[in-house]
Structure prediction request, 476 residues.
Amino acid sequence: MTPKSTNLANFKVGVDNVIFSVDMAQNRVLVLLVMRQGDPFSGQWSLPGTLVRQGESLEAAAYRILAEKIRFKNIYLEQLYTFGGPDRDPRESPDCFGVRYLSVSYFALVRFEEAQLIADGVTGIAWYPLERVPELAFDHHQILEYGYQRLRNKLEYSPVAFDVLPETFTLGDLYQLYTSVLGENFSDYSNFRTRLLKLGFLSDTGVKVSRGAGRPASLYRFNSESFALLKDKPMVFI
Amino acid sequence: MTPKSTNLANFKVGVDNVIFSVDMAQNRVLVLLVMRQGDPFSGQWSLPGTLVRQGESLEAAAYRILAEKIRFKNIYLEQLYTFGGPDRDPRESPDCFGVRYLSVSYFALVRFEEAQLIADGVTGIAWYPLERVPELAFDHHQILEYGYQRLRNKLEYSPVAFDVLPETFTLGDLYQLYTSVLGENFSDYSNFRTRLLKLGFLSDTGVKVSRGAGRPASLYRFNSESFALLKDKPMVFI
DNA sequence: ACAAAAGTGTTTTCCTTACACCCATGA
DNA sequence: TCATGGGTGTAAGGAAAACACTTTTGT
Prediction:
């Protein structure tokens, strides 16, 4: 029998980011895609990813591509899931058992207005509305689905919405975000209002803003200090 | 500049399992540990893990060690988190930047009575109560903490308790499990009772069991069919 | 004046919480 | 008969759901 170590798979580890944003004007959830240049799936859209370098942590790699693709002020980032079956990357020829490609995916949220895409003239890069995502390279469709699931879950019990919304927003904006992610029937608007305001971490800036017809709305701001005080108590945004 | 591929880290990927169980007799949460034999940390306790082999999926590797260490009838298994910083394994010498060791951790639940440890006479293997876990190899203490956090969270909104309890159990057993994991003050017993029974997936087997003094209790059974019907509706076990 | 959106209030219902209390057994 | 744990019931308070209604703007 060959020495045990020869049975072990050799891995390259990639980091793939599911980066969400929301276009408040069009009321659409967006995901950042890049056009692949390299060998497999060249010319196809994919999640922005990279292979992990020597001495680099997974999270550092995630931040690196992020910084390569967009300029942003604020960001939310957390690990999503690790996809590692054999055959997820054609570079590992199915019979030769060479190098395995494993993908550690990260989930990120940025503000649309603050996120400036870095177009280098070579690589395609674009925000895609979730309903119009094209075919993706590798198993990136699965990763995207998993990320979207996470977004829906997190909206219900954590304040991630405020990492996607502009710094100041109306309660209508907030409600629209929730409806466009969670569907129309998640809650009545007025109940949603009172519930969120009662939580006590939204401060009215006093500034009013008018969008077309209708009564002008107050701009609110997420108060992270107030939130920090309640953060271990269970909380429902539904 | 050297070709780009030489900058990439070469990985070995390990799978480490946080396997929980509960000893109903002593009312203690247990975690499965094994004594390391190999090179780094030899003679120290660690989470049961293995390196992923050629052509083997991550989950398959997780099941493989599981099957190597215990015989079980029922098991719950899900991916936990991926720990991948450099310097988490001394085998990667800090300056030479050789092979990186990455750990994809899995979270598992088994029934104590049904789980038969496979002692091969060579390797130490034992259930440790959570309060008496010794020092662990690598960053396994961090992984264990993360797994315990997951256990606490899942108890609140998913029926994982029934993967740890015996097939039939009293409501007192169920309550004790919750208190030993979540602490004494998570809920009043009688309210816990009524809440759980109202959910509608616990069936009374009619069998009574007497444990020392006190009125005999009914044995209940988790009814996965009834649960499946309600599974997408939000549910609170608190 | 009217539509449209913001914002307030009310009612009904249901769930949570905190108990008090009865029941069946072992010692 | 008493301690012990199993099991039922209830009253107070609060949150959730549904909906009516008022306010302030643009057109």
Remarks:
- The CA atoms of residues 2 and 92 of chain B lie 21 Å apart.
- Residues 10-157 of chain B form a domain with the Nucleoside Triphosphate Pyrophosphohydrolase fold (CATH 3.90.79.10).
- Chain B touches chain A at residues 7-13, 51-58, 79, 81-82, 84-86, 97, 100, 102, 104 (CB under 8 Å).
- The longest helix of chain B spans residues 140-157.
